[in-house]
Design a protein that fits this description.
- The structure is a single chain.
- The chain is α/β, with parallel strands linked by helices and 280 residues long.
- The chain folds into two domains: 99 residues, no CATH class; 154 residues, NAD(P)-binding Rossmann-like Domain (Rossmann fold, 3-Layer(aba) Sandwich).
- Helices cover 38% and strands 21% of the residues.
- It has nine helices and eleven strands.
- Helix 3 crosses helix 8.
- It is elongated and about 70 Å long.
């Protein structure tokens, strides 16, 4: 059986929705001790909190959270005898941490000068970096283990791997490829950040072409172009890369702050954890 920690790393790397279940408190006779964890996905679970009805109910609760698209935490107390019919007779309090709509991936399209400069920064950030190009000789000969490389000429196939909440940065050597990626992102109804490198003139032409192709003005406005923190001056590759990386940092911090506001434990959960009665 794969450990919960290995499964967690895999889920985070592949943007698979998951719930981490932790036994945080016990009393009496229970299958496993406090600190025991398991990880639950839509179709599988990894590790164990002791089996039996406790584990079955925990898996069911976790999958309900995933099905409802919940992001955040909740606490559930299980009296093993009264509620679950287990002969242990103790109580277990479980913490459920759901990552149903979480994407930490960034897909960088283009291995040109700015792309190379960007990877030096992005590999230091808390993201899963995917680097895409159709030219094998543009990738560095020495591969960085922190980067997932994608050599492809079929962008349709590539998009089948991309989570709709992932960050996209578009800066290929070809305006036609850039446009095709923009089209694919809009057809996917991509929800994540989309940044397109280029001038204001290029951005205006792309907006016009995309609207002419049938995409709504609001949909096209999802593509930020020019992208980056425009107050940062300079046209050298690293200067442009710093500007774009800064915009990426702004975006993921705003996303994490929004997720954090949803993930706060409820008053009931806090009362259960502290064994204090909730306010009447």
């Amino acid at each position: 059986m794969k450990s919960w920690s290995d499964a967690l790393a895999l889920c985070q790397r592949s943007d698979q929705a998951h719930v981490l279940v932790t036994v945080i408190s016990t009393s009496g006779s229970v299958p496993r001790n406090s600190g025991t964890k398991m990880l639950v996905t839509e179709s599988a679970f990894f590790d164990t909190i002791g089996g039996g009805n406790l584990e079955l109910h925990a898996i069911e609760h976790a999958r309900k959270m995933l099905a409802n698209g919940e992001v955040g935490q909740c606490v559930v107390k299980y009296p093993l005898a009264a509620m679950l019919g287990q002969c242990c007779g103790g109580h277990a309090i479980l913490l459920f941490e759901s990552f149903a709509l979480c994407s930490q991936s960034l897909w960088l399209f283009g291995a040109g000068h700015v792309g190379h400069a960007l990877t030096k920064i992005l590999t230091e950030l808390p993201i899963n970096l995917h680097w895409v190009d159709s030219r094998s000789d543009q990738f560095p000969s020495s591969k960085d283990p922190a980067i997932q490389y994608h050599l492809t000429e079929c962008l349709h196939d590539t998009f089948e791997q991309i989570h709709s909440d992932a960050t996209l940065l578009i800066m290929t050597h070809s305006h036609d490829q850039d446009y095709q990626i923009c089209e694919l992102a809009l057809k996917q109804q991509h929800r994540g950040f989309i940044g397109l490198i280029g001038s204001k003139t290029k951005a205006a032409r792309f907006r016009h072409r995309l609207q002419h192709a049938g995409f709504t003005k609001d949909a096209v406005a999802r593509i930020e172009s020019p992208t980056g923190i425009l107050e940062i001056p300079g046209k050298r590759p690293m200067e442009v890369a710093v500007s774009i990386a800064g915009r990426v940092i702004q975006h993921y911090h705003s996303k994490h702050e929004a997720s954090a506001s949803q993930s706060l434990l409820s008053h009931d959960d806090i009362a259960l954890l502290t064994h204090q009665p909730k306010d009447q």
